[in-house]
Amino acid sequence: MKLDIQTLDAKGKGSIELSEEIFGLEPRADILHRMVNYQMAKRQAGTHKTLGRSEVTGSTKKFVRQKGSGGARHGNRKAPLFRGGGKAFGPVPRSHAHSLPKKIRALALKHALSTKAQAGEIIILENVTSKSAKTKDMKAQFEKLGLVNALVIAGVEVDANFGLAARNIPNIDVLPIQGINVYDILRRKKLVLTKAAVEALEVRFNG
Hints:
The protein has helices spanning 20-23, 29-43, 102-118, 135-145, 160-166, 182-187, 195-206, and strands at 2-6, 12-17, 122-125, 150-153, 172-175, 190-194. By secondary structure, it is of the alpha/beta class. The chain has 2 domains: 2-45 and 100-206, Ribosomal Protein L4, Chain: A; 50-90, no CATH class. A 6-stranded mixed beta sheet has the order 2-1-3-6-4-5. It is elongated. The relative contact order is 0.18. Residues 63-96 are annotated as: Disordered. Part of the 50S ribosomal subunit. Pfam families: Ribosomal_L4. Belongs to the universal ribosomal protein uL4 family.
């Protein structure tokens, strides 16, 4: 699969051949779904908490005699069935993360890249370096490239000026190559890869 390389000013800079093993797979929704669920579960805080009967503040005095009242037998008013009592089997802090095989995670990333390639929503840039950190200038360059909703994947490091200029633009995400992930690829319309990012991906999957 061959794609044209462009500069930030939307000028041609040759072409690049993308690996069919990474960008040419037939996308599978089930694998992508599993990976997105895996990512979302890991992001959940899991800090929800309610008080059990042993944690509720209140008297432990037995408020009604054991026999003869005509009612049920109770130790104190902290029981779950009373107003102000503890919650029975309530949520406690925990991790929502679950495991997913490393091979499935790697395959999901390939399928996400292939999804964008098949839809013609990949743009290859020579690099993403900027002389100024002005958002206005960066927005003008993105308009030339037709980028309104996009994920930009830079090389090992994101250029400081580019990162500062792009971070205030709505619906534009910028990540280094180490941060590339299925969820962020799918949530944005366009995927913008630098030459360095493409090379790094090929080394990652074929190395």
